[in-house]
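Report of the visiting student (M.T.), summer placement. My assignment was to run the structure pipeline on a short list of targets and document each run. The first record concerns peptidylprolyl isomerase.
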Amino acid sequence: MQTVSLALCSEMETDPCCEEHTDPAVEPTEPELGEAISEFADKDSHTELACGPPEEGEELKMKEQVETQSCAGASKSTEIKSTTNPEREDGETECKERRKLKKTNSWKMVRFQDPSEDDDVLERDSAAESLFPEYAMEEWTSSTFEELFTAEDWQDITEDRLLRKKVLEPVAPHSLCPTWGQEVTVKMQCVLEDRTVVEKDGKLVFVIGEGDVNQALEECVISMQKGEITLLLADSQYAYGLLGREPDIPAWAPLLYQLQLLDIREKPDPLTLPIADRIRIGNQKRERGNFHFQREEYSMAARAYCMALDVLTTRSQDGSNGGVEAEEEEVQDYRVKCLNNLATSQLKLEQYDEALHTSRDVLTLEQNNVKALFRAGKLLSDKGEYKEAMEVLKKALKLEPATKAIHVELSKLVKRQSGGKETKEWKAKPAEVLGDNIAPFLIPSKKKPSGISWKFILGALVVALGSLVTSVILTARH
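After the run finished, the structure tokens were exported:
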């Protein structure tokens, strides 16, 4: 199953809390149960629990930066050449008409840029051609979006008139229409108002209602009939809204689509699919969840992770295990990533009981998963289940004795066990001294020395000295 305009975050969970966001860690305060488990501070020699869903955060950001820089470099190169070559200005219109398609690896999309001087020697990319060459009408090529939003010959899909369509190729009245939950195949291309192509797919496959694509596509496709070709105009709130979609769709950008509904069929039962297909589909759902998590759309992220977990299974219809050992291990690995990502999303949504349950599901599959151990220990501590929390956090510390976040949480747990009194303080010996014996120990806090206070003694001396001086003065007067 393909997803459109989805940041292909390789594998969100490199080591997750929700798998690896690249946000800097910050040290948690005691009441902050809702914070993702690895948002901790101190960028010192300690290792830290990385957070963020997911686990490919740093790798993803590096890739996107490289791609953005390369695009910026290409633009700069074009600008320099245009200022030094007067002939380019004369042919500017022609160049715009012959814009060459350039692809990026991080998005399911295509983009156009003005060709450089040596483009003539490059082979033309056939994908740059329109998917609907016979429908290059004025609405698609030059009309302003303001005109299209008020045009009388367009149909309103929604009552707010922010999602509109115009049928270009009608079909027979009784042709099939899709319903929620069915799988469809669509041919589509999408442009901004300046007609920059930002999405294109000759066979986009998705399930209506599962969030595989943006709301505009789902709402439009469900209003179409099989074989129908239509223009779709979508306000930003039905597309990518305030955040836009880096690097190609700006914030609050409306979009114009050309669509054809190619096929409609029932969604396949995951238990009937080959294991390889389940892994592929499950990962696409997980990546969609990562996309939403990075946009802080936590409810949608959690929903995507749950759907991924429904697909990532090796069970067959008869209940037996249908995978070979290698496939089972791969499926389990992806399930752990999804569960860790789901738990972090639940924490962001302040669904603490659900996050604890999900963390325990991770430990059922991978009992030494440090992030799940830490998350579970923190949640248990906040629930007042101190004994179990101590056991879980000690196990996490044994696996990663240099992780400062675990020490911080254990220190808070000890204070809670003592009723908040400063009678004992958590201390852990350096890992290099203890070796494998990293069991924490308690050091009584420094107590005030017993005996007479020095302040009392000093006061007594002052009083005695004052009395002596007074006596001397009185004697001298007599």
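Residues 57-84 form the longest helix (28 residues). Residues 138-267 form a domain with the Chitinase A; domain 3 fold (CATH 3.10.50.40). I thank the supervising group for their guidance throughout the placement.
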